[in-house]
Task: inverse folding
């Protein structure tokens, strides 16, 4: 069986690097794909644009989505993905520093599977990534 | 000129008569009464005249008997018809005697003598029969009857003439007297009444003419008309005065109304300006609130993110090269960590404070005692080593927003917890005062470090601390949050303390006395905008 791909949409390179470092600490058996903006996230998801050579049938098993992205926002990406039949059931977790009620409610209303607030300490962040990956890709039963 | 006035007066008099005025009624009354009296007097007089004349006739008849019966008896006895006839004619010449007759009465004679002079009728006559007696030595014998008829026609004619004369003269007298009375009444009263009436109907309060004066000679003593005129002039003067007074009052009132209208206009103008200003301020406030909300969002998102990264990289740095670090390097890493921690708390506090002023209130019944208990239980779980005595009054309930009230009590309990951390036997108490009856006062009391009341006014300002941060940690945001939450629930918060003797924080909800102020109400002057 192929390793599951986790798609992380994160525009800040430092955040991306920290996420990579956190993933590296995990005894993870997932591929982590990082894209830096919404357009790229959609290209990757639908195997279009610069990712058109990617095998389309290998969809990411979990998408971690930041809200505050340049140009196309995290919510727009979420809306577009949910509108497509390919991603109507794919777990999409909002991963962000915001704990605004409105943002949380908006995320769920657009069909986010979960809403995660990044903890301040790195250790906690690593554990959060481990837990969410484990839950959605191992414990949770998916449609194949 | 005098001729003209006389004519005019006469025509007025005629008019007064033609009108159903007092003069006409007076005239009718006088005539009726006078006629009645005349009739009665005439009747009485006629009746006495009648009686007297009747008596005269009767006595004449008696005279006829006494003076003629003897000679007629002798003539009858002698059967001297010629003499008898002469005698009868003589009687008939007497006044009022209309017929006389002699009838012979005898048992022997076959044809008794009957002599009649004049006609006997039965209307308006008095008839008397006198026996003619002949004296004989042995007896007296009735030899005939003398019949005398007196007529009343002349009597009646006389009475009738008299009645006509009396009635005619009385009527003329009555009419003349009545006319005279009427004229006098007109001159004395009616003409002046008319004058008074004309004066009255032409009378106008706003343009008063001369006083009422009657056109007549001044009487020696004032009579009724003078009294009427005086009273009227007096009344006119009083009316005039009242009218003047009224007009002045009216003028004053009009001035007043104008002034009031002007004031009302000013007030409404001011109100409009005020409303405009309020609307402007409100929209400014709304804009400011919106800005504040987006600022809070930025703070939560934008400040936290780099802080997380600093902490993340610090952590990796600390882990990766840890064994090689000198003590100094380790110290620096620790300082970075402490700084990050402090900044993070600051951001959290700031958000807490701003959220305490935003969002709608969902008011329901909340149990303050339960919130205090759970806050203390949480703190005890985190710090099981601390000795703490707790006193909580049960089931203190209030109508408020549970979310905010929990935040409020958490802050006060944390505050008490923090400032009793150095006490060997810490005490935290929550309860309700009974002193103020209409608005309950709640309090959280501790026996901790306390503070100097001189600085009490700064207690509820954000980012203000009365203690050194080395003594007690914290951002100085807790009490500011408390103050905002209490203010949003229409209440007050204030504190009493003395250094080293603990502190009591009082607060109220839905406090009508909020604006009246209290001596120790240090929150009153700084409600959040």
Result:
């Amino acid at each position: 069986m192929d390793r599951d791909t986790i798609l992380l949409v994160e525009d800040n390179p430092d955040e991306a690097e920290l996420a990579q470092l956190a993933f590296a600490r995990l005894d993870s058996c997932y591929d982590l794909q990082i894209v830096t903006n919404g357009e790229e996230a959609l290209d990757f998801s639908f195997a279009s644009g610069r990712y058109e050579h990617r095998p389309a049938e290998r969809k990411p098993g979990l998408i971690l989505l930041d809200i505050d992205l340049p140009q196309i926002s995290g919510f727009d990406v979420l809306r577009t993905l949910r509108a497509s039949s390919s991603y109507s059931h794919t777990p999409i977790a909002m991963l962000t520093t915001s704990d605004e009620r409105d943002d949380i409610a908006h995320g769920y209303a657009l069909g986010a599977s979960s809403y995660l607030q990044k903890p301040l300490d790195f250790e906690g962040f690593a554990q959060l990534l481990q837990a969410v990956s484990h839950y959605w890709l191992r414990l949770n039963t998916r449609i194949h | 000129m005098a001729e003209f006035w006389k004519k005019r007066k006469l025509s007025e008099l005629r008019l007064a008569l033609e009108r159903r005025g007092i003069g006409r009624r007076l005239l009718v009354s006088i005539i009726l009464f006078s006629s009645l009296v005349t009739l009665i007097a005439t009747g009485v007089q006629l009746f006495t005249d009648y009686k007297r004349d009747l008596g005269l006739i009767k006595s004449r008849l008696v005279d006829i008997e006494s003076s003629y019966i003897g000679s007629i008896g002798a003539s009858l006895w002698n059967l001297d018809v010629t003499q008898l006839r002469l005698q009868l004619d003589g009687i008939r010449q007497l006044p009022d005697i209309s017929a006389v007759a002699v009838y012979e009465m005898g048992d022997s004679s076959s044809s008794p003598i009957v002599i009649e002079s004049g006609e006997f009728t039965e209307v308006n006559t008095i008839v008397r029969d006198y026996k003619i007696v002949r004296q004989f030595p042995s007896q007296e014998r009735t030899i005939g009857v003398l019949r005398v008829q007196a007529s009343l026609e002349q009597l009646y004619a006389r009475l009738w003439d008299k009645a006509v004369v009396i009635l005619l003269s009385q009527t003329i007298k009555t009419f003349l007297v009545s006319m005279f009375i009427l004229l006098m009444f007109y001159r004395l009263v009616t003409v002046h009444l008319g004058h008074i009436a004309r004066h009255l109907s032409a009378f106008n309060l706003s343009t008063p003419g001369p006083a009422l004066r009657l056109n007549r000679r001044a009487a020696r003593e004032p009579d009724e008309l003078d009294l009427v005129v005086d009273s009227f002039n007096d009344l006119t003067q009083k009316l005039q005065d009242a009218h003047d007074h009224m007009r002045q009052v009216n003028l004053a009132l009009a001035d007043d109304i104008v002034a009031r209208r002007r004031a009302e206009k000013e007030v409404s103008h001011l109100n409009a300006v005020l409303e405009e200003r309020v609307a402007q301020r409100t929209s400014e406030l709304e804009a400011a609130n919106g800005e504040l909300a987006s600022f809070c969002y930025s703070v939560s998102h934008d400040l936290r993110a780099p802080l997380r990264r600093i902490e993340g990289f610090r952590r990796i740095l600390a882990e990766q090269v840890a064994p090689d670090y000198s003590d100094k390097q380790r110290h620096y890493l620790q300082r970075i960590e402490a700084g990050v921690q402090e900044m993070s708390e600051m951001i959290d506090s700031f958000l807490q404070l701003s959220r305490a002023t935003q969002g709608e209130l969902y008011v329901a019944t909340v149990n303050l005692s339960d919130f205090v208990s759970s806050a203390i239980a949480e703190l005890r779980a985190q710090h099981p080593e601390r000795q703490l005595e707790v006193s909580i009054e049960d089931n203190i309930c209030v109508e408020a927003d549970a979310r905010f009230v929990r935040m409020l009590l958490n802050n006060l309990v944390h505050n008490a917890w923090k400032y009793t951390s150095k006490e060997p036997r810490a005490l935290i108490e929550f309860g309700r005062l009974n002193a103020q009856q209409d608005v309950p006062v709640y309090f959280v009391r501790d026996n901790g470090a306390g503070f100097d009341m001189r600085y009490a006014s700064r207690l509820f300002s954000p980012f203000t601390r009365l203690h050194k941060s080395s003594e007690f940690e914290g951002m100085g945001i807790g009490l500011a949050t408390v103050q905002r939450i209490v203010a949003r629930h229409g209440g007050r918060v204030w504190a009493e303390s003395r250094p080293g003797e603990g502190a009591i924080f009082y607060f109220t909800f839905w406090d009508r006395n909020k604006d009246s102020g209290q001596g120790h109400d240090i929150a009153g002057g700084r409600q959040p905008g």
